[in-house]
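## retry 2 of 3
previous attempt timed out at serialization; input unchanged, resubmitting
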Amino acid sequence: MFQALYELELAGCNEITEQGLWQCLHPRIVSLTLTDCINVADEAVGAVAQLLPALYEFQLQAYHVTDQALGYFSPKQGSSLGVLRLHSCWEITNHGVVNIVHSLPNLTVLSLSGCSKLTDDGVELIAENLQKLRSLDLSWCPRITDAALEYIACDLNQLEELTLDRCVHVTDIGIGYISTMLSLQSLYLRWCSQIRDFGLQHLCGMRNLQILSLAGCPLLTSNGLSSLIQLRHMCELELTNCPGASRELFDYLKEHLPRCLVIE
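## retry succeeded, writing output
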């Protein structure tokens, strides 16, 4: 029945049992998404690790998954798995990150969005061991501070996309670290409530930056935001819910960045 299945997405399937999930997991599957399925827990992740040798992309959103689940992955998956997205897995800690970096060294995309127990130490492990990463999402990780951004800037030299939405302890110091990353093309800083105009001065030196989101950053002023016209290669700038963004500012940005989509 499932022999031609290569991609599988199960969302909100609260009636599916672990046995039912096992029956769906055909070895040819390369992309699997499991979201809002209340019976998905550590053992289900173990089944994924055991039964899907060709898996390239795995996206999981499950509140009850713990560090133990990530221990099921082995170097066998490390050769194939390139994309891992763990969304709102609240029980995962730095110990789970240890399992990720040891078993999945070839990841190019990693999202730990909403994994609220992750700390700077976990990010240090990621930066030191997953140096092939091109995309990293740490949004809604409230324990992340500027120290984590220093680790990222020092070691992730191929990173092209970084998402830090709602990382409320990130300050201009952390932005200074990020601004040294020559490979970075997309940077998302939505609702980073401590970023000020001084941080924008650092960003203005990032000549390869193409997409920048500062939505909801409350401390930025029109004067600071106007300096972003120095980013001539930018193609998208998001400034929704920025109290310091005026109509005059938007007109000014659109005039000086004619090829950039300015999202109000």
